[in-house]
Specification:
mainly beta, 11 strands, single chain
Length: about 130
């Protein structure tokens, strides 16, 4: 298994930026795809972004494309989500997740990911 711990959430004004971090431990980090999801109150968890094992492939939800950037540092067992031009509709709990079954294919369904962090709250005020 792998343990995932998110950090970096907080309260920010619309138009501002945040960088979320996810620290992984317990398994060879470079062997799997990582993803970020989010869940707003009363809504289902939704895909935000995913990154391949090497970082060479990324994929984003249309709602965040051009504003968010996912990256990883395998030497540090970290994955990041840089969020720019934040909007009130970005308010949610953000989760990082690991897909142990793939190194390249970037999946967007939450049930396809095997391990999850506890989440970090992001609140964007208007």
């Amino acid at each position: 298994q792998v343990q995932l711990v998110e950090s970096g959430g907080g309260l920010v004004q619309a138009g501002g930026s945040l960088r979320l971090s996810c620290a992984a431990s317990g398994r060879t980090f470079s062997n799997y795809v990582m993803g970020w999801f989010r869940q707003a109150p009363g809504k289902e968890r939704e895909f935000v972004a995913a990154i391949s094992w090497s970082g060479g492939r990324t994929f984003y939800a249309d709602s965040v494309k051009g504003r968010f950037t996912i990256s990883r540092d395998n030497a540090k067992n970290m994955v990041y989500l840089r969020m720019n031009s934040l909007k009130p509709e970005d308010t949610a709990v953000y989760y990082c997740a690991a897909d142990f079954h793939d190194t390249i294919t970037l999946k967007t369904q939450s049930h396809e990911y095997d391990s999850w962090g506890q989440g970090t709250q992001v609140t964007v005020s208007s």
